Amino acid sequence: MHIKNSEQLFQRAQKSIPGGVNSPVRAFKSVGGNPIFIQKAKGAYLYDEDGNAYIDYIASWGPMILGHAYEPVIKAIQEKAAFSTSFGAPTQLEIEMAELIISMVPNVDLIRMVSSGTEACMSALRLARGYTGKNKFIKFEGCYHGHADAFLVKAGSGVATFNIQTVPGIPAAVSDDTLTCAYNDLNAVEKLVAAHPNEIAAIIVEPVAGNMGCILPEQGFLEGLRKICTQHNIVLIFDEVMTGFRLAAGGAQQRLSIDADLITYGKVIGAGMPVGAFGGKKEIMQHIAPLGNVYQAGTLSGNPIAMIAGFTLLTELKNNPAIYKELDDKTTYLHKGLDEVFAASKTPYTINRLGSMISVHFSNKPVTNFETAAAANNDLFKKYFHAMLKRGIYLPPSPFESWFLNNALTYADLDKTIAASKESLQEIL
Ligand SMILES: *Cc1c(COP(=O)(O)O)cnc(C)c1O
């Protein structure tokens, strides 16, 4: 495999862009080697600047749930762009987008559009604080809620990948109000709540974690959080930036039958355009400006190009529920195939999966939180990653990220992935 053009581009990129990338995990630092520069993508395939093709398990970290360059989305963007790319004034399309989301997620009464998942989580936290008049909140180790100051405490994703323990530039006065405990540890949550009576505004959680690999909520964990929040007047925020419109049309809330008070969205909601959103019960959402005094704004929020892309994709997901069954079946098939080749290799491994989120950990212990994810043999993951890449399979370049399947993947693609896994394990073990 030639990667000469990618290597040259990376040398050049580092002269003008910090680390050569605009988001840290893309730099491949944790798996070693140089990043691949992508030229284009179609369906389930990425094509790099040297003409290599890869089967894609990142799907732009989720948005490409129906595959890259999905024709209805591309066509809608092209048509809309001719009408101008932004107005800074309201449009009918924003109402249609809000109505569509509300029709897919029953417990969302009001929804505000923003331009990223980071903004969605940051704004939801501010709203929870403004609504309750309390400052502290609980987040879970290894969960990632974007890069707003308050959340960069024991965060997952790139923060975990680069092993950044404390982030310089975040004042203690900010991080002191961030309380953390282990994912799936309901007892620890109860203790924190008891230790800080009437001080906790919110509990924010990835209902299925995707930023320390894929980690499932244990039976009773989310139900327990729901109960604690109701009892103590704490706002329960589900960060569905990854799981929203992916695990089901109604996201993790629908799939797991639990209602949060506020929900944040990103990734799938914009079909690859920069979009996020937060929404929930009217009682809470009506505190957002201009209805209330919790200020939140955005020059490009509800941008017409971003809206038409998201609207077109979500309409497809709403009208064609078979997509979720197909994605589940494909991911189950991949899971089974990987299980066989990993078991045959005799290397310790654990595969976690729900719906179209899946990840492999080189550990023979159950991976249920950040500690157990970090205890896996992540050096072996690096070798596995590169062995797969060489065989045309593009996995997330970190053991602390979920893989995302897209529905353009064929069973032949999955068979290729399983066969590449078998060869890769033979090569690295
Ligand atoms: C990606 C992600 C975010 C941040 O979204 P950005 O669009 O990258 O700002 C927040 N929460 C979760 C769960 C995510 O996976």
Automatic annotation (TrEMBL):
Lineage, highest ranks first: Bacteria, Pseudomonadati, Bacteroidota, Chitinophagia, Chitinophagales
Q: Which sequence ranges form a coiled-coil region, renumbered to this chain?
A: none
**InterPro entries with a match to the protein in the record:** 4pyrrol_synth_GluAld_NH2Trfase, Aminotrans_3, Aminotrans_3_PPA_site, PyrdxlP-dep_Trfase, PyrdxlP-dep_Trfase_major, PyrdxlP-dep_Trfase_small
Catalysed reaction(s) here are: (S)-4-amino-5-oxopentanoate = 5-aminolevulinate
MF terms from GO for this chain are:
glutamate-1-semialdehyde 2,1-aminomutase activity; pyridoxal phosphate binding; transaminase activity
Q: Which residues carry this modification: N6-(pyridoxal phosphate)lysine?
A: K267
Q: Family assignment? A: Belongs to the class-III pyridoxal-phosphate-dependent aminotransferase family. HemL subfamily.
Chief subcellular location: cytoplasm
> Which terms in the GO cellular component ontology are assigned?
cytoplasm
Source organism per entry reads Hydrotalea sandarakina
Question: Which cofactors are required for activity?
Answer: pyridoxal 5'-phosphate
Question: Which named protein is this?
Answer: Glutamate-1-semialdehyde 2,1-aminomutase
Q: Which GO terms describe its biological process?
A: protoporphyrinogen IX biosynthetic process
**SUPFAM superfamilies (alphabetical):** PLP-dependent transferases (SSF53383)
The UniProt subunit note reads as follows:
Homodimer.
Task: Cite the annotated pathway.
Answer: Porphyrin-containing compound metabolism; protoporphyrin-IX biosynthesis; 5-aminolevulinate from L-glutamyl-tRNA(Glu): step 2/2
> Where does the source fall among the domains of life?
Bacteria
Task: Tell me the compartments it is located in.
Answer: Cytoplasm
Reported EC number(s) for this entry are 5.4.3.8
